[in-house]
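I have been asked to look over a protein record a colleague put together. Thanks in advance; the entry in question is below.
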Amino acid sequence: MLITISNRYGCGAIAIAQRAARTLGYEFVDEQLPVVVAKRLRTSPQAVELAEDAGKSMSERMLRALESGTPEIRVQTPSFDEELLREVQEAVREFASHGNVVIFGRGANAILGRRSDVLRVFMYAPRDWRMRHIMEGHGVDERTALAEIDRIHRARREYMRVYYSADWGDPQNYDLAIDTATFGEERSASLIVQAVRGA
């Protein structure tokens, strides 16, 4: 079974996904992806993560995508963004081929799609709850926490819209949605485990 995790920033999804993976005895894939992609692109994992952070340059990326479709200014070699997207997709499929894996983020739900062996999970929580969670976890003030929530929200929504023509928060793109503020870490992880074992 394959599990993909999508989430609203600050809802505690990483800890929940890791707990579910441990309980199931599944491989947890998160930080390994930039490393694999970086090796293929012959760059650093930091460069990959920076490029994936679409929040600051999405408008430029969209402009480049439009330009690449215009014959007069078409560039023969793919851009770094295009190569990055292709390698991320290949890496996700490669990890998925191992089976029994939890893949965190990177549009894995869209890459793998609706399949009988994939459980697509979306985790969320109210904005104020996530703000407090970030403030406590990172030692930042309210303004900083809210700014980061909004920045990452916009980046993830745009990333999914531009690259996968998908509405990031649309429940139709997921099999299981969990309000982590309601269920907490242990019960949220248990919901994922039950969904897998009941499948």
About this structure: Strands lie at 2-7, 27-29, 101-104, 118-124, 176-179. The CA atoms of residues 84 and 192 lie 30 Å apart. The chain has one domain: 2-193. Residues 54-78 have pLDDT under 50 and may be disordered.
